[in-house]
């Protein structure tokens, strides 16, 4: 298959922007730049990308795909379709499946399902401890050999400092990234939302910021003494930001991500949004939200990751305290990222860093836009303003707090590892997503 993408603004951080074409033959970039179209007069698919951006494929390093075990919420195939529509070309599914991804057999199964789905790249994160129980380490060497790109007990903390230290030492020896779900259960147990004025008003037990930042501080200390690579998942508090910023100044090999919901919502939104705004860690205060935005701008936070956490409508219809934690994000993250650009929090190159280059580097994959490399790219129409309609999502779940939001820009053409995984021009069923030039 010969594909020609014409007239895009090619934006690859670290290189000079150009307006040009990208020619792709059998999945490999064969020509790129101004006039590259001339190298492919016989393309079978021509993508008119005038006024669009072409960026290295977006990477979501933190998703939950629910397969094996809870396929009614999401499968690897449905999650991959949601990812591709959201502009992602690679996703890292967390190990809290059923059974959990704590053995090479489960890692193999996930990768088999990913191969069958033939969509975006699936780079599994394996468990730190057997059964995610926080006690006995999994076999990091075997898990890495079978394709795990990182280890995490996400969903649960590794409460024992001694076990976490052992995990960091072992991960360091295997060159694996450790992703910390930083939560001190002695602060958070029994809590269902941020501790503050909103939780008091609603009469819901709260989770204080300390539940997160005390654990972030512990893990930074352990990272510092072990020299392992540590990544803090879903940072939600200003105190965590301060600790990470200081650690980076000292040269500690720590990185961090936050999720779009922490950048746009606070605990004051929970009363109105209900269980679609319930997640762990919870939405925090306005001061936390502002600190997270600043941390993105100054580089303290390296990556935007969705923590895409699908749950079924019947579970999310339960009373607030009984409903599960988590919100989906694969199909809204890019639009919200572009909103950050619109609001001046990030420039476009920084957004591409946070959503592509930096997470790719952390999980060890190459994103180069270069002749001879497999096409792994996202074409974005920054002028396509659209309304979030969960009923149109490719995800099997609907639990988003952003329903009804008007977002600026969306992915129109996505290629992962040389394959076309999303082509908006082929989606005739979806009039709302047709380009609407409202925002330049
Ligand atoms: O909100 C969350 N949902 N936080 C987690 O840590 C786990 C996740 C899930 O698996 O649903
Ligand atoms: Zn998660």
Structural class: alpha/beta
CATH superfamily of the largest domain: Metal-dependent hydrolases
CATH level-1 class of the largest domain: Alpha Beta
Give the terminus-to-terminus CA distance: 32 Å
Please report the total strand number as a whole number: 19
**Reported CATH architecture of the largest domain:** Alpha-Beta Barrel
Uncertain residue ranges:
433-440
Tally the helices: what do you get?
14
Rg over CA atoms, rounded to whole Å, is 21 Å
Q: What is the count of distinct domains?
A: 2
Proportion of helical residues: 25-40%
Distinct ligands, ions and cofactors found in the model? (4S)-2,6-dioxohexahydropyrimidine-4-carboxylic acid, zinc ion
Describe the fold and architecture.
Helix content is 31%, strand content 22%. With 440 residues, the chain is α/β, with parallel strands linked by helices. The protein folds into two domains: 117 residues, Urease, subunit C, domain 1, CATH 2.30.40; 305 residues, Metal-dependent hydrolases (TIM Barrel, Alpha-Beta Barrel), CATH 3.20.20.140. The strands form four sheets. Strands 1, 2, 3, 4, 5, 17, 18 and 19 form an eight-stranded mixed β-sheet that branches. Strands 9-10-11-14-15-16 form a six-stranded parallel β-sheet. Helix 4 crosses helix 7, helix 7 packs parallel to helix 8 and helix 8 runs parallel beside helix 11. The C terminus is likely disordered. The site of zinc ion has 6 residues, from loops.
């Amino acid at each position: 298959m010969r594909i020609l993408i014409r007239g895009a603004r090619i934006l690859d951080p670290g290189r000079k922007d150009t307006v040009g074409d990208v020619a792709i033959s059998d999945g490999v970039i064969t020509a790129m730049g101004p006039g590259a179209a001339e190298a492919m007069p016989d393309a079978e698919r021509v993508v008119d990308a005038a006024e669009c951006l072409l960026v290295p494929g977006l990477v979501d390093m933190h998703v939950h795909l629910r397969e094996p075990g809870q396929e009614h919420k999401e499968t690897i195939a449905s999650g991959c379709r949601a990812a591709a529509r959201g502009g992602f070309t690679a996703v890292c599914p967390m190990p809290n499946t059923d059974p959990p991804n704590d053995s090479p057999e489960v890692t193999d199964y996930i990768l088999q399902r990913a191969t069958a789905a033939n969509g975006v790249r699936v780079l599994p994160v394996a468990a730190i401890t057997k059964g995610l129980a926080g006690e006995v380490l999994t076999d990091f060497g075997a898990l890495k050999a079978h394709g795990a790109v990182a280890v995490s007990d996400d969903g649960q903390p590794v409460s024992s400092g001694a076990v976490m230290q052992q995990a960091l030492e072992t991960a360091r020896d295997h060159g694996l990234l450790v992703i910390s779900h930083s939560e001190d259960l002695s602060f958070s147990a029994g809590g269902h939302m941020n501790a503050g004025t909103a939780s008091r008003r609603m009469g819901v037990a709260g989770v204080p910021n300390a539940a997160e930042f005390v654990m972030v501080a512990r893990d930074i200390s352990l990272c510092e003494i072990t020299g392992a690579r540590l990544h803090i998942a879903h940072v939600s508090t200003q105190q965590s930001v301060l600790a990470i910023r200081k650690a980076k100044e000292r040269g500690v090999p720590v990185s961090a991500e936050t999720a779009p919901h922490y950048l746009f919502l606070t605990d004051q939104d929970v009363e109105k949004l209900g269980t679609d705004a319930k997640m762990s860690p919870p939405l925090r205060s306005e001061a936390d939200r502002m600190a997270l935005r600043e941390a993105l701008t100054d580089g303290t936070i390296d990556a935007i990751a969705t923590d895409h956490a699908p749950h079924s409508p019947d579970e999310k219809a339960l009373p607030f305290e009984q409903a599960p934690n988590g919100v989906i994000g694969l199909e809204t993250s890019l639009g919200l990222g572009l909103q950050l650009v619109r609001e001046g929090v990030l420039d476009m190159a920084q957004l591409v860093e946070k959503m592509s280059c930096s997470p790719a580097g952390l999980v060890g994959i190459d994103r180069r836009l270069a002749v001879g490399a497999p096409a792994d790219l996202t074409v974005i129409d920054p002028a396509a303003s659209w309304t979030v309609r969960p009923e149109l999502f490719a995800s099997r779940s609907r639990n988003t707090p952003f329903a009804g939001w008007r977002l600026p820009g969306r992915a129109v053409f996505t290629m992962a590892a040389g394959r076309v995984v999303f082509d908006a021009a082929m989606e005739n069923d979806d009039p709302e997503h047709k380009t609407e030039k409202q925002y330049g």
